[in-house]
Amino acid sequence: MKASLDKLNCIFCGMCGGICSDVFRADFDGKSVAMDKELSGELLASAKYAEAVCPTWAITIGNSPVVGNLTI
Ligand code: SF4
Q1: Which residue owns the Cα nearest ligand 1 atom 5?
Q2: Which ligand 1 atom lies nearest to the CA of residue 24?
Q3: CATH number (domain holding residue 24)
Q4: Higher pLDDT, 2 or 66
Q5: For a disulfide at 16, which of 7, 24, 45, 67, Cβ 3.0-4.6 Å?
Q6: Which residue, 13, 57, 52, 56, is CA-closest to 32?
Q7: Domain around 14
């Protein structure tokens, strides 16, 4: 299971990186980005917490990539 992040919805509040810096970090374009890594255990729990608190629902934890506002 991996994290995906819809940059179109990211307002770069910084919460995801603050909660789970092993998965989410600032990108060069002033948005956050999700690392391409398999999540399990505490890392998965932390990433799911970031998904839950993201104010713009830009984060998806799972195998479906997010494109724009659509999860495919
Ligand atoms: S919590 Fe959501 S809006 Fe905030 S930086 Fe992360 S992805 Fe962007």
Answers
A1: 12
A2: 6
A3: 3.30.70.20
A4: 2
A5: 24
A6: 13
A7: 2-71
